[in-house]
Amino acid sequence: MTSARSTAVMRGGDGARQRKLRLNSKRIAVVPRLFYDARFEVDREHTMREGFGATLGSRICAVAIGIFITANAFAQQAPTENKGVSVKSTAFMDLGPEIEGMAGRQLRMRSITLEPGGVFAIHNHKDRPALEIISKGSVTEFRGDTRREVVEGETVIPDRNTTHWWRNDGATPVVFTVVDVFSPPK
Fold first, then answer.
1. CA distances in angstroms from 78 to 58, 72, 163, listed in the order given
2. Quick one: pLDDT at residue 34?
3. Pairing status of strand 174-182 against strand 130-136
4. pLDDT band for position 5 (50/70/90)?
5. What average pLDDT does the segment 120-135 reach?
6. Are residues 12 and 32 in contact, defined by beta-carbon separation less than 8 angstroms?
7. Nearest by Cα to 136 from 109, 160, 96, 171
8. pTM for the full model?
9. Cα(first)–Cα(last) distance of the chain, in Å?
10. Strand order in the sheet with 7-11
11. Confidence of residue 176 (pLDDT cuts 50, 70, 90)
């Protein structure tokens, strides 16, 4: 007869160590090594009184809640409106006469200032490739779940697959020099 404290060590399909717990020769659960500790080797009275699943279930629930809270803590809600943004067009050129097949497209250069606490709303660069140079300051760029600090002198090159937004977390204005090819509204 097998006691409530007997266990067997086995390997799972992924090679991870697991413990197979038994109570009176009946398998109760296969527990990944990650969740295993001495509390799983409980006596029969505790198992009957508290239920084996309570310990494992509470651990799994705690891990799931932790992952959910962590993911939400780092998630950024992408703004849909600009705040603290001023744009100055410095130059543009009609590309139709310059390059065959570029009729209706322009090459333009702008200076964009993003005030402290300001955001440049989420936008994409489909059909509008660009070179974005940080001329002054540093700024945070968000692309999906990724964020990165871009400092003065760095260039960002968004292509047709880029969707991003910017936020100035600093105490001074950020100045971008942006050169892009675009189709002006008709």
1. 34, 13, 11
2. 47
3. antiparallel
4. very low
5. 96
6. yes
7. 171
8. 0.59
9. 86
10. 7-11, 17-23, 26-32
11. very high
More confident residue, 63 or 151: 151
Q: Which two tokens stand for residue 170?
A: 């600093």
DSSP calls for the chain: ---TT-EEEEE-TTS-EEEEEEETTEEEEEEEGGG--GGGS--HHHHHHH-HHHHHHHHHHHHHHHHHHHHHHH--PPPSS-EEEEEEEEEEEE-TTTSTT-TT-EEEEEEEEEEEEEEEEEEE-TT--EEEEEEESEEEEEETTEEEEEETT-EE---TT-EEEEE--SSS-EEEEEEEEE----
**Burial readout 94-103 (b: 16 or more C-beta within 10 A, e: otherwise):** ebeeeeeeee
Token code pair at residue 125: 């660069």
CA distance 64 to 49: 26
Record the tokens describing residue 146, joined without a space.
Answer: 């990724």
Split at pLDDT 50, 70, 90, the class of 57 is: low
Query: Has residue 26 got a pLDDT over 50?
Result: no
Q: Average pLDDT, whole number, for the chain?
A: 77
Q: 179: which 2 tokens? A: 């050169």
